[in-house]
Design goal:
single chain; alpha/beta; globular; disordered N terminus
Amino acid sequence: MPNEVASNPSTRRVFLGSMTGLTAASYSRVLGANDRVGVGFIGYGLIGKQHITNFKASFPDVDRVALCDVYKPRLDEGLAYMESPNAKGYSDFRKMYENKDIDGVLVATPDHWHALLTIMACAAGKDVYCEKPLTVFIDEGKWMLQARDKYKRVVAVGTQRNHNPAYPSSIKILQSGVLGKIETVKIPNEVRNIYPGFGKTPVTDPPPGFDYDQWLGPAPKRPYQAHRGLYHFRWFWDYSGGQLTNLGAHSVAAMLLVTGAKGPTKVVSYGGRIALEDDGETPDIQDCFYQFPGFHMTMGIREANAYRDSNAQGGGGAGTVIMGTKGNLIIGTGEVVPERHGDPVNSIPRFVGHPTGGPVYSSTPAVPWIDAQPGLGGRRGEGGGAGRGQGAAAGAGRGPGGAAGAGRGEGDVMVLNKRDWINCIKSRAKPFCDLELGHRTAIVCNLGNMSLRLGSRIIQWDPDKQVVIGDKQAAAMCTRQYRAPWDGVLRSLIKV
């Protein structure tokens, strides 16, 4: 039975005991014997297929051992696509976790499964590569960190654009103080015009071969609609935080990496499901404003209008900009654009001239505060991807995974991130796109959604203690009750 391990404590103990028999030291020795890593894939959707493609092309030291999907037609197609004759297919990931040939699992499922799949994989003795968005509510990230540390696993997050070689130089520029006093970070709106939306789908039976109950997993039980299943889950609160947590996570992760900020202290968000004519729930228009210690940040999404303003993707915009009193840093390329200074009086409007006693203009010319720096060239994006600058970097560098980094597009940084994860499985080092940064990234995005869903309420946040301040209703939104039996599984593995 699919739920036997979840519902039977004695069966669960046997399952976990069989999975955790190897210590970290003996595990490393086993890997070192043949220097190969066995990987199992959970989820054969858009990104899941891309991950398998990368492993087929670029990882001769990795065995593609298994694939799990709750939709049998996809499972069959994915097994054929893996081109790994001995790979095993599973409809229940718990059976896959019993496979001792698997050293690491790659989680590419709908977002509401990310945390529990990672926690259970850690308990089963597997290392994990988990796609972003990491969580759908804040406490899930805390639970994942607890499981990683308790079971001593290597967990990487799919924020691969942080491998952009411009980021190390951007960090150095920011830390040098050359920009002056930092006052604003502008993350461009994520824009994808899908107006009028994907329409509405009726309540029906799930398609043949689709285990909808297993797909729902810890999420609330809902009648099946096509949009509550394959791909379209992104637009429902039960399974996702919409595009703010999905697309926005890449830019937020980069901003946190470059600035070193722990998190915001105050958040407010405006917008909603305003324009699209479909059955989705998450915002199609959203603007978020964050106060961080020392600076404020803006970001947003647009799914019903893709106007290419100066900060929008696809129109030659700047990408994420850190704005100082003396200049601006475009973090995706490391380009520095200076501000100019002169006599402030000369900036006052003149019209036909000021009467007696008014400002007196001077002949002092405006000159740059600092020198311009060209950066690494190319488009000013955050590392490539659909609608974003397509691999801006033209300069050479050495990425965290040990590979030279020049001209990296989305496919390149995806390979770099997985290469780093495989290397860390062997060395037991912390991955570059580590779980802490993934968790803090998700907090920023989830706080924006929290404010919006509370009627654009200002949320005060303690980034050190990672708790909401002075708002019981908002604090309650940091957690959710998993659906049975998954709530019991969670409590059996970590402290909730």
